[in-house]
Request: fold
Amino acid sequence: MKEVLQLEKYKTLRIIKYSDPNLAEQEFTKRINAYCTYKTGIKIQPMQQGYRQSQSFELFIVNNIELDMMQEKIEENAAVISDILRKLPIIAREQYYRKVLTDEILSTNEIEGVRSTKKEINDAFLSMKFKNEHHERFGGIVKSYDSIFYEKFSPVSEVAEIRKIYDKILTGEITENNRLDGSLFRTSEVYIHNNTQEILHRGDPNEENIIANLELFLNLMNSAEFPYLIKIMMAHYYFEYIHPFYDGNGRVGRFITCKYLASKLDPLTAISFSHMINSVRKKYYDAFVETSDPNNRGEGTMFVFQMLKIVHQGQKQLIEDLLKKIELLDKIEITLNEITYKEDLEKRILNLLCQSWLFETTILDSEILEELNTTRFKASRAIVNLMRNGYIGKIKSRPAIHQISDEFGQRIVDSPTR
Reply:
């Protein structure tokens, strides 16, 4: 009978050694030499008492039916998400992209202890959309993530590209004492502490090591010898292990992971990666520390499994949220059809504002003009009529922004479904 590993009950080598050292040695030999084991060819030095051990171990993953099934479920969910998105109107789809992207950027900043607000992210979006030369805060990270949606995937093939990603994402966010002092990366050691100042991890000791190991990282990311999702998650661990910067490692590492996930799955699944990590942050850090434990001897099976679970859980939340949005879009259509308008432009404007309300984003009056290809005079006349009837209200004058009224939002919510 074929042996099946149950990952939810999977005992790491560390746990096995705690109960029986001899059994741990036997189990390690069995796992590292199993036919289903993926050996990365990458060596790590485990952490103990705040120091890297001199002895190194090869990173490896023991594949099994649960990992296979998790990957299959993730790919199936990606197809479901893509199918639901196709049912959304183009504007609604773009509004939802912006909502998920905003949540992602807020989450990746929060994980790193960087304070940011929805307004700051939205201002960066608007600055990018209208090609404003004024550099809004977070403009670089917004442009970077936005490219995942709208630009063709190109792999990161050179170590210098990682530095370019860092420069773009972290423009204006690095303090003077954290500025890079090497040709591309840092030259001195960096430590990761927990809340009690205990050292959990030490990055590579110098720039020479960083560059050499980032070459291995890129080789793994771009390798065709491993299942796609498994190699991405194992590479994600290795990037954080290297820790090439004084600050910003998590933001850069998660962006690269998102970029590669989007090339295999749907962009929304990829973009929600940091948001989901933020919701289970302790499990994420525990999985990292566990992989770096010397008694686990380089095994990354549980790290990969935990990362895939994070992706899968994020997809389930996305699907649930999208289905709710589809239901509300139906209610919006019913409610809009119940109204008598002086002109069709009023309905079209109200429809855009309803979609903005639904996806919790802001749409400028100037964006409405551009989208509906109308004049400012005609749009202003229609907006005045909508305000007079209590359907919308002005929330800002410069730039001009309107949104649906609370009363009209309640009317939509109370509308029956078909």
